[in-house]
Amino acid sequence: MNTVLKPPQNASADNAESPRYAAPALEKGLDILDVLVDTAEGYTLNELSVKLGRTVSEIFRMVVTLERRGYVQGDHNDRYTLTLKLFEMAHRQQPIRSLTAMALPLLRDLANVTRQSCHLSIYHSGRVAVIAQVDSPERWSFGLKVGAVMGLTDTSSGHVLMAFRDPAERERMLAAHTRVEGENDVEPSALLALLDEIRATGHEIVPSRQMRGVTNVAFPVIGSNGDAIAAVNVPYLERIDQKLNPVFDDVCRMVGDMASQLSALMGFSGYNLEGE
């Protein structure tokens, strides 16, 4: 028997959509989280109050509560940032757990054979989120942290995730796009042309738009419905000393092979590295 949540019997249908049923405290807490998600450095209470258009006294107790519950953290300068708690809650969803569990052994193998760091990303609320990452086994490495949030429109992972979706879904993703700090501007028509090109080639291999000297090698992980459910990316660094590592073309092939294997594990049977 299903339980249906109903308004009080003396409430009219119009009242159900009125401010009478608003939750101001919850709205305030969600507003704080929305503001903090856009900053890596965090905000002081005074800065938060300006961003939210509220007084410090209005938000103080809510910030303290969010900190006590583990959603935000304050540093020695009294600057507040988000913790990874929301990401960890999302990460506990069964589809993401399954994807991560299947991906991690393949990511470890990929890092070992390429001698490069690698990560797996998904589309999340208008952005791109890293859900798994493995460092290069070399003495030094460059990689993104699990839980890191990236731009949708100026990253190879974001491009791959959008390129391998149907046009209607791609449009919804772009409509929900939320910029991250430092995200580059991208002209819409140029972006759509680029996504079509990526879909035709099956991947994106380009210099990073964020870090000089890094070349992104990104391939889609395709689910059983034929759409991209994740992106595998190697931020490739060329070694210039006498140590021999796999050459760039071999690294690209290895990333494609790994994406193909993971796609097969996720139920897709028609992966084609040369596009459709």
UniProtKB/TrEMBL annotation:
Keywords: DNA-binding, Transcription, Transcription regulation. Signal peptide: none annotated. GO terms for molecular function: DNA binding; DNA-binding transcription factor activity. Residues 1-15 have a biased composition (Polar residues). Residues 85-268 form the IclR-ED domain. Pfam families: HTH_IclR, IclR_C. This is Transcriptional regulator, IclR family. Residues 1-20 are annotated as: Disordered. InterPro entries: GAF-like_dom_sf, HTH_MetabolicPath_Reg, Tscrpt_reg_IclR_C, Tscrpt_reg_IclR_N, WH-like_DNA-bd_sf, WH_DNA-bd_sf. Residues 23-84 form the HTH iclR-type domain. One of its GO terms (biological process) is negative regulation of DNA-templated transcription. The lineage of its organism: Bacteria, Pseudomonadati, Pseudomonadota, Betaproteobacteria, Burkholderiales. It comes from the Bacteria. SUPFAM superfamilies: GAF domain-like, Winged helix' DNA-binding domain.
